[in-house]
Amino acid sequence: MRTRPFAVLVSIALAACSKEPAGDSAEPARTGTPAPPSAAPPAQATPPEAIAAPDDLDVAALKKALKCASDAKSGPCAVLNAFGTCKPWNAVVPSGDGRWIGRGYRVEGGKTSDEFTVVRSRRVPANEVGPGQLPAKVGIGDIAKQEGQAFSQADRLIRTLERSDVPPRSNMALEYLKKRESWPEGFTMKTVGGQVYVASEGGAFVCQGPKQELYLVQRAATRGGAGEGLYATAYPVSW
Known about the structure:
The chain is an alpha+beta fold. About 20% of the residues lie in helices and about 25% in strands. It has six helices and eight strands.
């Protein structure tokens, strides 16, 4: 019996059927892991916009509003005269916490009243301030009559500092100033001409005199008349 040729023909036929069709109908071979979809490029960080430096204090306009004499030696006009020759102040003090005390003159409703003005400059981390701001906050306040001996001894302390003498530690105004913790602070910036601008009430401007004293003009938050605000000269106690 001859069976062998028949088996060979069947094997050839089966082999031909098992081959994949050629041409467009053939499914491409899949090898490896499918490629992930392309990732979107990382978003670019938007740099903070630069803030323009504020203008200097308009000394001429304030002198005109207050009818200042060119040779004024006291009061608000003397403070304004000092702005003509004072130098830029570095609000970032070496100790990180500087304090000043002096005489202030508050102009309000056409009247001028005296007060004891106190100033504090406190260093703050750079990441706590905005673009163009200095790493320091400045607080401006006063010593109220209700503070008792601190109020009554403030004038004596100021006169000592005016002479560049060392005040006695027993002075209660000195003790009050060193221990005061509550301050109405504002952020600071350099003006176009190098003065320090403080975001406090209607805005305050500060510059420095030859003996580290500060000349300060703080505009009133609600100005009922031209020139209203605080005008002060303050002397350093610590810096």
